[in-house]
Automatic annotation (TrEMBL):
Disordered: region residues: 31-54
Source domain of life: Archaea
Official protein name in the record: Uncharacterized protein
Length: 54
């Protein structure tokens, strides 16, 4: 599974088997929304509108 960031050009795939974890880490560190490549669509639901605890 390849994950892509909807806010910048980040994407997983460099660490086979670790894509999910690196995707979560990118989300936590940046607050960017991550989507898996197979489900990249023009979703309108703000499902990832939460910000990490400050
Ligand atoms: Zn990003």
């Amino acid at each position: 599974m390849v994950y892509t960031c909807t806010n910048c050009e980040w994407k997983s795939g460099e660490n086979a088997g670790d894509e999910g974890r690196t995707a979560i880490e990118h989300y936590i560190e940046t607050g960017h929304a991550i989507e898996s490549e197979s489900t990249v669509t023009e979703r309108t639901a703000p499902a990832t509108d939460e910000t990490p605890s400050e």
